[in-house]
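Quick one: structure for this chain?
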Amino acid sequence: MANSNAKRKVYLENATRKELNSLVRSGSVSAREVRQARILLLADENSREGQRPDSYIAECVGVCERQVSRVRQRFVEHGLETTLQRQTRSDAGVPQKVDGAVEAQLVRLCCSEPPAGQQRWTLQLLVDELGKLTVGAQVCRETVRRTLKKIASNPGKQNASAFRKPTAPASLHIWSE
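Got it. Here's what it folds into:
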């Protein structure tokens, strides 16, 4: 790929320019699509104003120059539809290691007594014990940490779901007859 850092030139046809203008003016598309459409319209070499530098386009649209060059490159290499559509994540089809059943076992472990000789459960103890209990997936320490953070497991903490909130402050005099 000779001269891969060269600036890609965008040449829009009239029909494509009209489509992008209507896309920018309509309020029914995502802000990301509008931003990319504006970048393409400003980067068009066939426009009346002529060639514009990436710094000018970036300032007008409110993105960095690198984003402008990436949109140019994607348009030149893949076309309009691919440029406007969001890319699918590479890990989108990867199933989560900690599903509801494993999470329930983890919560049960956290609420149980720690092993003999330990004052409390540590992350490594939870990982080891969870590895013994679950047959399928091996989970790492970071996965256990993220799961515990997500469920906000703290048996001593008063939160809205576990304890009733006091209805009146202690300093308020309660009338009785």
